[in-house]
Structure formats: structure tokens, C-alpha cells
Write a structure and sequence with these properties.
It is globular, with a radius of gyration of 19 Å. With 341 residues, it is α/β, with parallel strands linked by helices. It contains twelve helices and twelve strands. The protein has two domains: 207 residues, NAD(P)-binding Rossmann-like Domain (Rossmann fold, 3-Layer(aba) Sandwich); 92 residues, UDP-galactose 4-epimerase, domain 1 (Alpha-Beta Complex). The structure holds nicotinamide-adenine-dinucleotide and thymidine-5'-diphospho-beta-D-xylose.
Length: 341
């Protein structure tokens, strides 16, 4: 029996990981511990095997709640829980420090107290800052930390705490750093689901700055397969960069989406740039490819097709995600109302 304690499992990547782990490992049982913030969505958990998946509502920064929920026969704790949106961290960093930094330390402490076998921490390429537009420049596991947004700084701090728990206390840890994920069930504040949702409703899509920033995109299930592999085969204390060698400028992404949705390029609106906007992310995944034999299964074309199809097939999911507080967020962030669709 493989007993996993997943934090943030009602979010985009955490819920995809739980789906994947339950499907790929018939002996796997998951406790899903999530605070259900604006980004946590019970709709993301529909269809999971109730015999092997148990949801616990709780906050990773609350030691008593984590202590009460984490059984001592857990094989691995996988920490996805985080405040994850750069733009929100620019408006206010408080929750980013509380969850991403303090919450990670609480999990490390409780994992140690409970004797959990392995602690897998999900980090991001953004801790390494921004790369020049030079085709020979990539993030490797040895790249220096240079976080540029409050979000990235909080994720960098969390990584340092994970490293310290391994070095000082001998906790068995793995850290993974991935680039931009896309796929089903991503909250529509992030570029791809935001633009699909807007385009489906024939609303303008807001491109920051000149639209030439580069991101390294990976289909969410490919990221999750890499996490499962690192959890099962990774070397204790190691960091693994995860990326699909798929760099795209934002404008290219937007044009592909509009073309696939048969929507006009006239929906594109250039809006004020994000303060401190990182220019380019690009991951060198050689280590995880060579050491663990990981390879992405989706191409950009196949991943995008699946993603667009999922949102087109799930208008109720989009409508619920875009209701309530999302409407206030959107008006504040973009200075215009989002439609009811
Ligand atoms: P998400 O925002 O969709 O989900 C985050 C989840 O964490 C939500 O379910 C939320 O309810 C939960 N959560 C937030 N605060 C919590 C708290 N205090 N206690 C318990 N649960 C809490 O995020 P995501 O895109 O699924 O990202 C998951 C992880 O992967 C994050 O750590 C993020 O930094 C990292 N990451 C994301 C990307 C990406 O492209 N989305 C890329 C690299 C790394
Ligand atoms: O409305 C928008 N217009 C726009 O041009 C939004 C929301 C984004 N953008 C741009 C900014 C970025 O260059 O698109 C690019 C992608 O933006 P996001 O989807 O906000 O992602 P990013 O800031 O790159 O960070 C993501 O990848 C790393 C995730 O949100 C992080 O959680 C992850 O760690």
C-alpha cells in the first residue's frame, strides 16, 4: 500500500496528480489536505475513487490541523499547497508568506515529528528569476536563486527551508521545479485558461506589455508523471528541474488559442505590463531525463488540443470558477468587467 498525503490537492496540479497517482498505482491511497482558498475547487475532485481518496479541509499553516490529519504511517507528503498567482502577490504578499513560507515549515516540522518517509516539495522555475533571450541560456539545478516577484521570493524561501530540513535534520526530501503548466481545471486567472474562457465568451484577451515574454509550457499530466517518478525513484535531498523543452512567446500562445477556437485576432488587447515581469523562462530537464528516464508524453499541439476541448466541454466549471469573488478580482486587475458567461 502506498499512502500519500497531498496538500493543495483541490487545486489545478494537485488534483491532476491525485487522479494520476490513483490511476497509475492501484495500491495507492490519498489523503487530500486543502484549505479551499479561492483556487481550491471541489469540482476538481469529481469522479475520484472515494475508497482511496479522502478529503480533509485544513490549513497547512495551522500546526494542530496538520498534526490531526497526518497519519504516522504515511509514505510520502507531497506539498502542492500554495498561493500560486504572481499578479496577486504583487497586490499583497501576506498570504504568500503565510502559506508558502510558514506553511511549508509547519509541514516539514510535522512530517519529521510523524516520521514520514519522504517529503516532496513542488517548487517552480521562477525561483531562478528571468533568463536573457539567448538560445544557450537555460535554468539548471545549479542556477542561482534570483526570485523577482513576491510569489517567487516566497517559493524560494520555502525551498531553502526544505533544503535546511534535509541538511540539518536528515529529512528525506525531494524538490521539483517546473515551468508553466497548462491543462484541464486550471483556475482562469492564469494565461491559458483565462484566454480560453474569455475567447469562448467572445471577450477581449489582455496581453501584458509587448506580448514577447517567453514561457516554457508543459502539459500538467507530464509534470505529474515526473513528480510520481521523483517521489518513487529520486535521490534523497535532490532537486529536479521539469520541463518539456517547449518555449513559446505569449503572443504565439494567444494566436494558437484563438486559431484553435476559430476566434478573430481582433480580440487581442495590449494592456499595461506586469510590474517586474520576468522576460524568459527555459528549463534544462537533462537531469530528470538522464537519471530517472522521464520524458513528456504530450506535444504542444496534442496538449493544447486536449486542454481546449476540456474547457469547451465544461462550461459549467468555467461559469462557477468565474462567479463571485472572481468578478471582483477581474475588475480590479484588468479595470473591466468580465461577462456572466
Ligand atoms: P492552485 O492555485 O491551482 O492550487 C493551490 C491549492 O492550494 C488550492 O487548492 C488551495 O486551496 C490550496 N491552498 C492554498 N493555501 C493553502 C493552505 N494554507 N493550506 C492548505 N491548502 C492551501 O496552484 P497550482 O497551479 O495547482 O500549483 C500547485 C503548486 O505547484 C504550487 O506550489 C505552485 O507554486 C507550483 N507550481 C505551479 C506551476 C503552474 O504553472 N501552475 C508551475 C510550477 C510550480
Ligand atoms: O492576463 C494575462 N496576460 C498576460 O499577458 C496574464 C494572467 C498573464 N499574462 C502573461 C504573463 C506571463 O508572461 O502570460 C504569461 C504567463 O502568465 P501566468 O499564467 O500568470 O504565469 P506565470 O506568471 O508565468 O507563472 C506561472 O508559472 C510558474 C504560474 O502561475 C506559477 O504558479 C508557476 O510557478
Amino acid at each position: 500500500m502506498l499512502k500519500l498525503f497531498v496538500t493543495g490537492g483541490a487545486g489545478f496540479i494537485g488534483s491532476a496528480f491525485i487522479r494520476l497517482a490513483l490511476a497509475a498505482r492501484p495500491d495507492c491511497q490519498v489523503i487530500n489536505f486543502d484549505a479551499l482558498t479561492y483556487a481550491g475547487n471541489p469540482d476538481n475532485l469529481t469522479g475520484l475513487d472515494a475508497e482511496r481518496h479522502c478529503f480533509v479541509h485544513g490549513d497547512i499553516a495551522n500546526r494542530d490541523q496538520v498534526l490531526a490529519a497526518l497519519p504516522d504511517d504515511t509514505d510520502a507528503l507531497i506539498n502542492f499547497a500554495a498561493e500560486s498567482h504572481v499578479d496577486r502577490s504583487i497586490v499583497s504578499a501576506d498570504e504568500f508568506l503565510r502559506t508558502n513560507v510558514l506553511g511549508t515549515q509547519v509541514l516539514l516540522d510535522v512530517a519529521r515529528a510523524r516520521g514520514i518517509r519522504r517529503f516532496v516539495h513542488i517548487s517552480t522555475d521562477e525561483v531562478m528569476g528571468s533568463l536573457p533571450e539567448d538560445e544557450n541560456a537555460f535554468f539548471t539545478e545549479a542556477s542561482p536563486f534570483a526570485p523577482n516577484s513576491p510569489y517567487a521570493a516566497s517559493k524560494a524561501a520555502a525551498e531553502h527551508l526544505v533544503r535546511a530540513a534535509h541538511h540539518t535534520h536528515g529529512l528525506d526530501t525531494i524538490t521539483t521545479r517546473c515551468g508553466n503548466n497548462y491543462g484541464p481545471r486550471q483556475f482562469p486567472e492564469k494565461l491559458i485558461p483565462l484566454f480560453i474562457a474569455n475567447a469562448l465568451a467572445d471577450e477581449p484577451v489582455p496581453v501584458y506589455g509587448d506580448g514577447r515574454n517567453v514561457r516554457d509550457w508543459i502539459y500538467v499530466d507530464d509534470h505529474c508523471r515526473a513528480i510520481l517518478l521523483a517521489l518513487e525513484k529520486g535521490e534523497s535531498g535532490a532537486t529536479y528541474n521539469i520541463g518539456a523543452r517547449n518555449e513559446r512567446r505569449n503572443l504565439e500562445v494567444v494566436e494558437s488559442l484563438l486559431r484553435a477556437l476559430d476566434k478573430p485576432a481582433s480580440l487581442i488587447r495590449y494592456v499595461k505590463d506586469r510590474p517586474g515581469h520576468d522576460r524568459r523562462y527555459a528549463i534544462d530537464p537533462t537531469k530528470i531525463e538522464m537519471e530517472l528516464g522521464w520524458q513528456p508524453q504530450e506535444t504542444w499541439e496534442s496538449g493544447l488540443k486536449k486542454t481546449i476541448q476540456w474547457y469547451a466541454d465544461n462550461p459549467e466549471w468555467i461559469a462557477r470558477a468565474r462567479s463571485g469573488a472572481y468578478r471582483e478580482y477581474y475588475a480590479r486587475q484588468y479595470g473591466v468587467e468580465v461577462s456572466a458567461r
